[in-house]
Amino acid sequence: VVPPTPKRLPIPGVDKVILVASGKGGVGKSTTAVNLAVALRGKDQTCKVGLLDADVYGPSLPMMMNLNDSPELNEQEMMLPLMNYGVKCMSMAFLVKQDSAIIWRGLMVMSAIQQLLRKVQWGPLDYLVVDMPPGTGDTQLSVSQNIHVDGAIIVTTPQDIALLDARKGAEMFSKVNTPVLGIVQNMSVFICPKCSHTEDIFGNNGAERLSSELGIPLLADIPINKSIRQCADLGTPIVVEHPNSTTTELYYSLAKSV
Ligand code: ADP
Fold it and tell me: Which UniProt keywords apply (predicted)?
């Protein structure tokens, strides 16, 4: 049962809010959110973009965006986002010690995310990309019900179990009247760099089938690529590190579709 929709308030100074969601963890949601955020700045880097790590259970943004400082407060006691690669970033991990395990109750998670949305000086921004926690629980509902969201992107691998959960994600957003912009199929194929043989490690075309079944567009199809993983671990998104690669072009084309 979906609770009644409270009033959805815009975030001051933020033009569009895009959620990056997934049914399951480990499918590449954060990697997609980070590269999408950098790509949304545009090749001329004129667009103003923010990235909120709402995945409080497993925050990846500090590592993927190479940021570790503590945010400062302005005169209005609003937190100032940290900035790297031209993107304004905020994560719960900036506010608590990273190596300490926090035991979150559902309500604490919801209130933490509301603070990260409302007590941060986000504006002026053309886009705020929100890296959501995986799954379809209270937190996901609370974000899509409390702020004005322009659309959600669902990341999945082509694997059956991931697709099953991605379908639930799409259904949840439609129940709360949040438009689903489309699906990103990640880790679709592995192309051997030595012999160019292709291997469908997680199955093939699963997201295409899901997209036609649900009538939601497939926005991008991103292969398994060692550089994507290496760049994530080094704290430089592939869009920044390899601006002219074919993979980077996939993220630019994804950015055009949101
Ligand atoms: P999630 O946010 O869904 O939990 P992550 O973005 O953290 O997933 O990705 C999980 C792991 O897979 C990370 O180690 C990341 O670097 C790696 N990864 C994500 N997408 C790809 C890809 N297309 N090719 C290779 N590695 C990837």
Answer: 4Fe-4S, ATP-binding, Iron, Iron-sulfur, Metal-binding, Mitochondrion, Nucleotide-binding, Transit peptide
Atom of ligand 1 nearest to the CA of 186: 23
Does any domain span residue 213?
A: yes
For residues 258 and 7, give the distance between their C-alpha atoms in angstroms, rounded to a whole number: 24
CB atoms within 10 A of CB 42: 15
Predicted complex ipTM exceeds 0.85: yes
Query: Does residue 215 belong to any structural domain of this protein?
Result: yes
Instruction: List beta partners, residue 21.
Output: 154
Expressed in angstroms and rounded, the spacing between residue 201 Cα and the centre of ligand 1 is 14
Q: What is the per-residue pLDDT across 162-217, written as a single tens digit (0 to 9) for each? A: 888 889 999 999 988 899 999 999 999 998 888 989 999 888 888 888 999 899 99
Cis peptide before 134 (omega within 30 of 0): no
Is 5 a domain residue? no
What is the residue with the minimal CA distance to atom 5 of ligand 1? 28
CATH of the domain at 166: 3.40.50.300
- Maximum C-alpha span of the chain: 59
